[in-house]
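Office hours follow-up: a student asked to see two folded examples consecutively, so here they are.
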Amino acid sequence: MKHLEKCKPFCKEIILEHLTIISKLNTQLSNILLNRVYGLGYNLFALSLELVLLKKMGYIDEDVHTNILNMVKSKSEYDFNVAVLAITNIRKLRITEHGSMETNPNAYTLISKIYLSEILNLKLLNEFVCNDGRK
């Protein structure tokens, strides 16, 4: 889909930032993600990963997370674009308030403790790496 290609640079930015934490926690997983996810351009996975992070950090609640995720998975280009815009703006707010994971890792100390169990979890990996994220 054409609209997935448009957000590729944004998704690349997300994956590279998240790899900052992942590489410190699990080098093998980091290599798998770099080769499989980043290499194949799993844009839906990157957007979902960022949504889970935003939820865990308190920027969005469960309902907002579910609604945006449904829009990301939608076949409607309009819904997808609205979802990407929402994620972009909330992510900018997170980075404004805390810095990025690369520039201010201390702000993400608590997140790094739950990252592999609550953010990058098996459900997310199964949905977006084993499948294409659109059931």
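And the second, which I mentioned at the end of office hours:
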Amino acid sequence: MYHRLFLDYDDVDLEWVLMDVERLVRLCPKLGKAIILQSSEGHYHVRFMRARLTWDEVVGLFFASTAHRGFVKFSIEVGSATLRLSSKGKEKHAPIYIGTYDPDRGFYYDEYTAMMLKSLPRSIRIYKD
């Protein structure tokens, strides 16, 4: 069974997230493109939608990342990682697509990706074997 890597960043700026994503892609080139969403000011979700990883690779990348330690610890303990696609509570909005990171092109905004993300289910979960 293969998995995709999802990461949650809290209390950081976009430059921090991009630096970490670029570093992770250098560590594991098969991660490929990353989709970056902003859930609120200083809070980001990163999804490597095309990567096919073993659970051990996911765990290794969790530890190599600077992602929110609570998200990493909980994901490893329960054996799955879930990122919210819907709004959180009455005051918050669903995470907003802000761009794609491609190892060859850098960071850019893609209209097609933005449109496709609007049609996804409300949550995505990955499970360990």
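Two things to take away from it. The two ends are 6 Å apart (CA to CA). The chain has a mean pLDDT of 81.
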